[in-house]
Design brief:
It contains eleven helices and no strands. It is mainly α. It starts with a helix and ends with a helix. The mean pLDDT is 89.
């Protein structure tokens, strides 16, 4: 219990700073890939600090409430995860958070914001099956849905048993990280055809809330990805760190070498990957276990 409380508090305090540094490194690496120098690594923190000082234009009274609820549930997702609770509860909490973001965007009057909210729902429809298959696969391998037991249950990293599920989860992480070719609802880059999509009508402190929420969410996603590498052996921690570095670099590389696709293509390809890599892997593991 004490360890869970310490882990939860550490996530609340440290995750936004770690997420900001991760975003800064992301920008820097992207710039280098494109032959540019890029902004300083601390630039995301400078941007949010500037947003907090800007005037906030609120479209309606409930929009800020929806965004605060979005931030709350994103933080609760990470708290439950790093405290070692049930992984299904964690994933349902994250889905709830994303729904409040969609509601916040839909409550505005901009057609770009409404289109972004609609695309966000399509993206959720695309990646949720793979997320649930990931939870089921980890349960089959480790015999538990509790994260505190998953990280110590196996003598071998779960990725050994779940290579298809791992690749499928890495595939849908491109959607969650809002990178090409699946940055359909909004984008961290300037070349979004819907202005800023789902975040078009968010300004000042409201947009800062969205940015900080994404920092929290990205750290949680890396923690979820680390479950594929962690087991009861101490060396698995080093394996997880190396695995996360390689996987995130691969996401940046994909982001810089692919063009955005249509939402129909994203939905079809994601479901094909889920069925071929995820479902078949689950069936094979269930047979051999």
């Amino acid at each position: 219990m004490v360890q869970s409380i310490i882990s939860a508090i550490a996530y609340i305090i440290l995750a936004p700073f770690a997420g900001a540094l991760l975003a800064g490194l992301d920008r820097k690496i992207c710039a280098r890939m494109q032959g540019r120098q890029g902004p300083p690594i601390m630039q995301p923190l400078y941007d949010v600090a500037k947003l907090l000082k800007k005037q906030t234009k609120v479209i309606n009274r409930v929009q800020i409430l929806y965004l605060m609820t979005f931030l709350f549930f994103v933080i609760m997702t990470g708290v439950l995860f790093f405290a070692g609770y049930d992984i299904l509860l964690v994933l349902f909490t994250l889905t709830t958070a994303n729904m409040f973001l969609v509601i916040a965007a839909s409550s505005g009057h901009s057609p770009y914001s409404f289109m972004g909210a609609s695309r966000e729902l399509v993206q959720m429809l695309a990646y949720e099956p793979m997320v649930l298959i990931t939870a089921v696969g980890l349960y089959i391998v480790t015999g538990s849905f509790r994260i505190s037991e998953i990280v110590t249950a196996s003598n071998l990293p779960p990725v050994i048993y779940l290579p298809g599920v791992f690749l499928g989860f890495l595939y849908i992480m491109t959607i969650k990280l809002r990178k090409h070719p699946f940055d359909l609802s909004t984008s961290h880059h300037a070349h979004q055809e819907m202005v800023k999509g789902i975040t078009t009508e968010f300004s000042g402190q409201m947009f800062a809330i969205v940015e900080v929420s994404h920092w929290y969410e990205n750290i949680f996603l890396l923690g979820l990805l680390a479950l594929f590498f962690l087991n009861g052996n101490a060396w698995s921690v080093a394996l997880a760190v190396v695995g996360l570095v390689v996987c995130y670099f691969l996401e940046i590389l994909i982001d810089n070498t692919n063009a955005r696709v249509k939402w129909q293509t994203m939905l079809k390809n994601t479901w094909i990957v889920t069925a071929v890599l995820g479902a078949i892997n689950i069936i094979v593991v269930e047979i051999i276990k």
